[in-house]
Specification:
The protein is built from four helices and 13 strands. It has three domains: 91 residues, Ribosomal Protein L25, Chain P, CATH 2.40.240; 86 residues, RNA Polymerase Alpha Subunit, Chain A, domain 2, CATH 2.170.120.20; 53 residues. The strands form three sheets. A six-stranded mixed β-barrel has the order 1-3-2-6-5-4. Strands 10-7-9-12 form a four-stranded mixed beta sheet, with no helix packed on it. By secondary structure, the protein is an alpha+beta fold.
């Protein structure tokens, strides 16, 4: 998917100039890297805001059209206003075709309803990761990575090293780490019901044991009373 971003060079810099740009419906930004000097730019805010709502805009090689001169860039940073719907600043990085890039790409989970853990055991899929940091050449950058859950059983886990990554793409891992991506687990409500049933069963067993204990106590009391009666009879006979 080719996405083109239109921008103009910015002649004025500084906090005051940026405020004036925002009042005029523009967003200040910068493009850097690629063995070229950094250039400060400005973009139409509304057009940029709608592009930012596209998932692919955040994980694709974009075409930056800077006053007719086009170059390949990546979105590297976006600053949003704390409470207003306003893009305050944006950063782009130029890419070179023969230099690998690092990027976070979203994970798309499929076939969860067909997995044995969900379909047969009634479990729920828990997504541990929503995106994955990868390394690849710009031409190999995927918009997303698919995670197929069709064989996932209850209690099983999909790890990063289990994923089928596109050709030329590698996950960025440190040392021997292999973080979980998704798992199927028992729903909390069902787990709570099972715990309640187990507690009730334990209570029933304990209740069944109480009469035996009580009966033993009564038997001991009766035996004690019988011993006392025998002793009194022995005393009477001696007299």
């Amino acid at each position: 998917m080719q996405i083109e971003v239109n921008a103009q060079k910015r002649t004025k810099q500084g906090t005051g100039a940026s405020r004036r740009l925002r009042r005029e419906g523009k967003t200040p930004g910068i493009v850097y890297g690629g063995n070229k000097p950094a250039v400060v730019i400005e973009l139409d805010h509304n057009a940029l805001y709608h592009q930012l709502r596209q998932e692919a805009f955040h994980a694709s090689v974009l075409t930056l059209n800077l006053e007719g001169e086009k170059e390949q860039v990546l979105l590297r940073a976006v600053n949003m206003h704390p409470f207003r719907v306003e893009v305050q600043h944006i950063d782009f990085q130029r890419v070179l075709a023969d230099v690998k890039i690092q990027m976070k790409v979203p994970l798309h989970f499929i076939n969860a309803e067909q997995s044995p853990g969900v379909k047969v055991s009634g479990g729920l899929v828990s997504h541990v990761l929503s995106d994955l940091e990868i390394r690849c050449l710009p031409a190999d950058l995927p918009e997303f990575i698919e995670v197929d859950l069709k064989d996932l059983a209850l209690g099983n886990i999909v790890h990063v090293k289990d994923l089928q990554l596109p050709k030329g793409v590698e996950a960025i891992l440190h040392g021997n780490e292999n973080p979980p991506v998704a798992l199927v687990q028992i729903p909390r409500a069902l787990a709570a019901d099972e715990a309640a049933e187990a507690a009730a069963a334990e209570g029933a067993v304990a209740a069944a044991e109480v009469p035996t204990t009580k009966q033993s106590a009564e038997t001991a009391a009766a035996e004690k009373a019988g011993d006392k009666g025998e002793k009194k009879s022995e005393k009477s006979e001696k007299k």
